[in-house]
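User: Continuing from earlier, I have the next pair ready.

Assistant: Great, send them over.

User: Here they are, in order.

Assistant: Folding the first of the pair now:
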Amino acid sequence: MRSYFQAGRVEGPKLKRLISRIADFEIIVTDSEMEALILEMNLVKEYKPRYNVNLKDDKSFPYIRVTNEPYPRIFPTLRSCDKPLCFRAYRCVTNALAKTIGRIFPIRSCNYDINEETIRKGKYKVCLDYHIKKCDGPCEGLISEEEYRQIVNQVVNFINGRDQLVVQELTEKMKDLAARRKFEEAARIRDRIKFIENFQYKQKVVTDDFMDRDVVAVALEDEDACGVIFKIREGKIIGRQHYCILWRCVSEA
């Protein structure tokens, strides 16, 4: 931001126009650059500021795409697609998220057109991902379409920031597997839960109950008053609004 006010650094009519319309500044403190990028993305989507960036990477938007197939694929792409099967973010966020999804969830990475017919005919064989437990082998029908879809739904919830919901579902599944003495499968689910809990793709967490709420704070000084509303969703700050007034006028009224 400082570069906007250094002589010789401002070029182009858009930036000059932007600077001429600046009245004051507001800041929200985050713990990392990625938190700041995610917060900025949410604020830009909500307020659609005239002079802000378009969240573009060169000439295209980066997306996380969930394909519409019997056994969907999930991968980063620069091609737009229909909502809600596409999730847009900065490239650094998109790549980090796609890499983490591949580590946590056993989603296939192949480009095969997998359906009931190809499975019945044995057209495809499991690859290395299956043997190292990164895929559950849908190409040979080793996982049902319903079970695979449940994993995809978990990924979608994870992308949307609903980590706690995913952890709850996985915890229940882990306990069920352990009760049936399927300890190896339960251990793999436990490892997924640990990955999610250690994953830092989140905004500043301010509560541990993960409830949605609006927090209001008011400050008074002499004849001035200011109120701030923080929007908290699933325990994370996604934005804020503030209102400043002349306190004397309100008290007299």
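And the other member of the pair:
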Amino acid sequence: MIRRLRDSYTSINNLRAEIVRREAAEREIQRFNAELEERVQQRTVELEGANKELEAFSYSVSHDLRAPLRAIDGFSRKLLTGYADRLDDEGRRQLQVVRDNAQRMGQLIDDLLGFSRMGRREMDRQSIDMEAMALGVIDELRAAEPQRAIEFALLPPLPRAGGDAAMLRQVWANLLGNAAKFTRRHPVARIEVGGRTEGGEAIYWVRDDGAGFDMQYADKLFGVFQRLHRQDEFEGTGVGLAIAQRILHRHNGRIWGEGKPEAGATFWFALPLPSTDTHAGDPVLRPA
């Protein structure tokens, strides 16, 4: 009898100790959650401040830098048109170089601002017909360079995607525009567009037979202002792929590329498959 009482007393003490430990653990969890919430609020305030600083910087870049560039370009143009007879060939060439660089700097500013805005812009999610979207971009490229012989091969059907239509159209425009640009030296260029579903993703690709690139520099592909070809070979600022990557990251997607010098390049991008389940509070995607 005494042994049973002793065992019961021990069990009660152990239960009390367990209750004390659980209460202490709960208090620690509550304290941790309170600290975490405070940190999140602090980081949110810091992020809002950083965004305001970025917007102020963008405004400064857009207005303060454009004015002198416009002046440089404008006065250079006036010299070329109004004083061309007083300049020799070298003088006219150098003034044209000044104009070209002023215009290129303006394009760099535009691209930098576009890259900055892409991270802050609100997304309007829809269900998107990616095949129709790619065909629309292809039609625009054909209209922009009607003299070129470009064979576009679309391998349907391209899976639908869920996301912001304007943003994803920019991805197609950047990738197809690059393919058209880097095949410009070919009398007849071939550009292939395809897509498939795999592992919960919709995967798309744009393949060309153009200038390609060396894979040892592949880590530079998606950096801002990173270029793998000289400006006198192919025009551009080196921001298009960085913008495409930023758009896809905002869609929880990814992008990568492979190439070989003078043997073309292929760029893939993947997006999570849009859910068809409209229960449990899932948003209904509107058809694009």
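Worth noting for the second one:
Helices lie at 2-82, 89-118, 130-144, 165-182, 240-250. Residues 276-288 have pLDDT under 50 and may be disordered.
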